[in-house]
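dude i think i finally got it to work??
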Amino acid sequence: MEVIETIVTESVEVEENETVVSNLDPEKTKAEFVWTLQATWHLVNTRLEMDQAFDQPVCKKKKLWEMVAEKVNAKLREAGNSDVNVKAYECDLKWRNMLATYRKNAERAKRLGVCSVHWEFFKAMHEVLGKSREEIEAQRRAKLSGTKLGKAIASKRFTPILPTPPLTATPCPSRPPQDVLQLYMELQERKMNMWAQQKALEERKIEAINNLAQAISNLAQKNGGQLSKDGQ
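look at this
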């Protein structure tokens, strides 16, 4: 089964989702860190361990990513990789890529079941990032309990937020689902249409070349007849 992966390019966020091309720091123009499987697992485990720190309403993400980079480098050195050094912005960018991939695989798991996802980092990330809204709300209230803001919220009446249904493992079907078959048929139809268009284009090219050759031949015959008349 195909594993979904997504690449997120680095950019500067303006207001909400608007992005502009960023001016990279001079240190970012150096050779980029090569993410091995071992280094990627160190990043995933470290970032998930610090997930609560990143979820704080007020936190300095740059400082947190510097801490992540230090822990990843320390684990790599313990494993005998003393000549590598990953930077904070590289950890941040790599995590954004992995987070986008996780979200796409989570949507796939909802539609086709967990067994349809073969991305090796999905299970570890989903155990932390796949919490229901009810669990997140309970944790938030626990953090706010005893504070002035928590007491103010407790004195108000709110409409409860319904939790998302838990993600349960569904058995793999013996045959491909109908939507997968439909998608396969659509892809085959698109390929046939593209092949037909390419064939028609090639035929028009050949026809144009033949017409051009015929025109050149007629012109050459005409010029040859005109020269013979001039010679007489």
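Confidence is low (pLDDT under 50) at residues 8-24.
im so relieved honestly
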